[in-house]
């Protein structure tokens, strides 16, 4: 059963097509990530799916309702954590939760607030004004708030942008727990490859308003081709290519190492050690490289996600935070 179905979705700003006819499906209970550099069209897509923007053409059905024709029904069934903080900084964490819960008409509100603030480990800070919270605490509060009305689908736009590695890992734990404990469908956008890889069951790579590849991290990496194993052998005379059915390619490098192309390095390594033993070859050092999602993006576009993401995005976040003060 699908939680989200998108067909030929187009979103234009004036004459500019930010989303150029994308189609995809997200299954119920799945974590689905949109991975792509700044400006790829990820936020625009999230805004259309969460009914904040109207599609120019195409169709999007979210939690069983058409976003253009039944926006109110869609809104009832989804939760959103925006890229830009949207909590009230002058109010306490508890007050922010209370107001949101009342707007949505949440039943057993106080009980739910306590459970959720405990879930994101903010219960002890519930009476502190949000302006004294760190970026990570604010993001955790936003997550707790987005869960108050028990949404079927949660949209997270760059959930860990600008946060330190420890806080990011913490937020990843909450996201995994939401999926595992509540079978929640989670749609997240990110320009961090590790985030997509660590969290998502399936990933759509987006660039210039189009989905250029889609699949599990493993499936996407297979688009690049082989894993690579580098061997340093003991004797110079052993510097020749090894032959076996699991070795797709072999090259002796100028620095004296042997480079092997294999389908799966983890499976090939034990067989390689056996082969070396049988042939009386002594291996001094082994390193291997598995394609990363960055290699996939590079393979598909000739560019790196990092070039336009990473630091730039953090800088953008800091600028926005300063402007709000
Ligand atoms: N309101 C707007 N008016 C005109 N152009 C816009 C508007 N919002 C976004 N764009 C443009 O649409 C394109 C897609 O932007 P979008 O924010 O969806 O990308 P993104 O992948 O989410 O990147 P980011 O992470 O930086 O938000 C960009 O070229 C952006 O400049």
Mind sketching the topology for me?
Blueprint: E1 2-13, E2 16-27, E3 31-35, H1 42-49, E4 57-62, E5 65-66, H2 71-77, E6 78-81, H3 93-103, H4 109-119, H5 135-146, E7 153-157, H6 165-182, E8 185-190, H7 193-199, E9 202-207, E10 210-215, H8 217-222, E11 227-233, E12 247-252, E13 258-262, H9 265-278, E14 283-289, H10 293-301, H11 305-308, H12 311-324
Parallel strand pairs: 3-8, 3-9, 6-7, 7-8
Antiparallel strand pairs: 1-2, 1-4, 4-5, 9-10, 11-13, 11-14, 12-13
Helix pairs in contact: 3-4
The structure holds adenosine-5'-triphosphate (ATP).
Question: How would you describe this structure to a colleague?
Answer:
It is a single chain. The protein has 2 domains: 2-221, Rossmann fold (3-Layer(aba) Sandwich); 226-289, Alpha-Beta Plaits, CATH 3.30.70. It has helices at residues 42-49, 71-77, 93-103, 109-119, 135-146, 165-182, 193-199, 217-222, 265-278, 293-301, 305-308, 311-324, and strands spanning 2-13, 16-27, 31-35, 57-62, 65-66, 78-81, 153-157, 185-190, 202-207, 210-215, 227-233, 247-252, 258-262, 283-289. It is built from 12 helices and 14 strands. Helices cover 37% and strands 27% of the residues. The model is unreliable at 307-325 (pLDDT under 50).
Short description:
This protein is of the alpha/beta class and 325 residues long. Helices cover 37% and strands 27% of the residues. It folds into 2 domains: 2-221, P-loop containing nucleotide triphosphate hydrolases (Rossmann fold, 3-Layer(aba) Sandwich), CATH 3.40.50.300; 226-289, Alpha-Beta Plaits (2-Layer Sandwich).
């Amino acid at each position: 059963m699908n939680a989200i179905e998108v067909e030929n979705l187009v979103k234009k700003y004036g004459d500019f097509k930010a989303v150029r006819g994308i189609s995809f499906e997200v299954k119920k209970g799945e974590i689905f990530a949109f991975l792509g550099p700044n400006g790829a069209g990820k936020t625009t897509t999230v805004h259309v799916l969460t009914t904040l923007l109207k599609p120019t053409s195409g169709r999007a059905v979210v939690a069983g309702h058409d976003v253009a024709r039944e926006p109110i029904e869609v809104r009832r069934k989804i939760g959103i954590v925006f890229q830009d903080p949207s909590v009230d900084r002058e109010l306490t964490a508890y007050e922010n939760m209370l107001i949101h819960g009342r707007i949505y008409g949440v039943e057993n509100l106080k009980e739910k607030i306590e459970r959720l603030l405990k879930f994101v480990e903010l219960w002890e800070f519930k009476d502190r004004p949000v302006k004294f919270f760190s970026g990570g605490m604010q993001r955790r509060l936003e997550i707790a708030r987005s869960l108050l009305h028990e949404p079927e689908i949660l949209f997270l736009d760059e959930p860990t942008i600008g946060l330190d590695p420890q806080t990011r890992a913490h937020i990843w734990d909450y996201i995994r727990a939401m999926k595992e404990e509540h079978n929640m469908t989670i749609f997240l956008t990110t320009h961090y490859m590790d985030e997509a890889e660590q969290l998502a069951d399936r990933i759509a790579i987006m660039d210039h308003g189009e989905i250029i590849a889609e699949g599990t991290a493993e499936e996407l990496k297979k688009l690049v081709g082989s894993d690579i194993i580098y061997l340093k052998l003991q004797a110079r005379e052993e510097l020749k290519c090894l032959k076996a059915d699991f070795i797709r390619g072999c090259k002796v490098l100028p620095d004296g190492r042997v480079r092997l192309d294999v389908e799966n390095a983890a499976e090939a390594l034990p067989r390689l050690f056996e082969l070396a033993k049988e042939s009386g070859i002594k291996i001094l050092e082994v390193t291997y490289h598995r394609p990363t999602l960055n290699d996939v993006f590079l393979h598909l576009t000739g560019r790196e996600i990092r070039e336009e993401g990473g630091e730039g995005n953090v800088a953008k976040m800091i600028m926005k935070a300063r402007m709000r003060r």
